[in-house]
Amino acid sequence: MIKRSCKVKASGISIRWKLAAYLAVFIAIVLIVTWVFQFYLLNNFYEMIKRRELTQSSATLAEHVEAEDLSILAYTYALNCTMAVAVYRFDGDVLVPIVNVDATGQQGIAISNHQLTKYYHKAEENGGTYLGKFTFGGYEVGNQPAPPFGNDTQDPNHEIKVSRARLVHLQLVQGASEETYLIVLNASVQPLASTVQTLKTQFLWILSILLVCAAVMVLLLYRHISSPLMRMNEAAKQLALGRYDVEFSGLGYQETRELADTLNYASHELSRLDRLQKELIANISHDLRTPLTMIKGYSEVMRDIPGENTAENMQVVIDETTRLSELVNDLLDLSKIQSGTRKPEPERFDLTLAVEEIMKRYDTFVRHKGYHITFVADCNVEIYADHGMILQVLYNLINNAVNYTGADLSVIVTQTVRDNRVRISVTDTGDGIPPEQMPLIWDRYYKIDKVHRRAMIGTGLGLSIVKGILELHDAAYGVDSRVGDGSTFWFELPTVPAEESTTDFHHTEE
After folding, report:
1. Which domains does the chain show, CATH number per domain?
2. Among 5, 43, 244, 256, which is most buried by a count of CB atoms within 10 Å?
3. What does pTM read for this prediction?
4. Predicted pLDDT at 151
């Protein structure tokens, strides 16, 4: 006995480790992005937002520079944006303060009159606005080192770079009274070192929590995705060993349930095909054994017994040899059709005349066996198909009806044409087919009664060959049957216009 094994070495990474790796990469990307934005770009975003607040507030105040509610509006913006607001009116070359509101707690605009005049000219050169960054003492922040604390001799034009600074926005406004106003907004840019340190501490806690959550998520995903797949893999190994009664369970997600349903369907189909294969082998063995036994027996009789070398005994040997040849040919035809090596070679021919020619070939059989085979057609019709294949379909359907017809030995072949399609029907008067077994009768050697008996005509492979040929022609086919009332096998093909119409009606009875 040969024991089959199903040990397959699969390369690659397990799905649980892939899930863990994907989650780890995702968490790493999130943390890196968070780190960059929170720690390295926080000051930049903070300053960008403060600059936008100053610009928008200055634009609104410019629209109301001569309005009565200017003081209230300046107070509102100062509180909401935590800044100092000052509005000056030019009286000649002198700046006369109109509004001065400070919500920063740092004693208003920390810029000397000299520097204010200087940056006023910058605003004038810049189209009426100027936004600068200043530090303690009114020095503008740049890239140079800061002057010593309290050094009053330092050049006020010298730019320095410090962590604590103030943003100052200046805007020149021409009022409706032709007077010129200067709006100065001052907001503190606070150093965020303590805030960043707080965020770093939070970041470490967030990292720890995310790692724990990732581990839990991997376990949950493993339980709902990987575990069902592993169970189905084990069941598939059993299926590969020929155990078709295994059940695939895909508890979890929709995809795993659909996969389990597909595998269960495949298992059912494989079980059915295995059963049919065993039946096929048994039935073919039966069909081969019977003629071989008869050929051997009659040959031994003719060899050993004088006078038995008669024409009748020789005819039996010839008939059984012919049956063996037909069986082998049918098996070869079926194999060629199913493998795709046999292709239709369509041609235009008269289907009605072809059926009539077939009916004439049953003359001898009808006379000797007492069968009644009738052909009824409403008109001649032409089709475009493989002539030899369609004849084979007709032969097999008629042979099947002969083998299974009732006690009256009657078979009716009918041709009807409707909507440019022709239907050929072959009806017997046998026992009929149960509804649940109709889809199975096209399988090789399928027997309704499960008891194999030798066909009177043909080899028992006829319906399988019919199915293969008709599917090659994209033809519709089927069977209508009721238990006790016989069966009607039919197929339909498209017609082609006849060169000359005919109104001849045919009724041939054999």
Report:
1. 266-337 (1.10.287.130), 343-509 (3.30.565.10)
2. 256
3. 0.45
4. 44
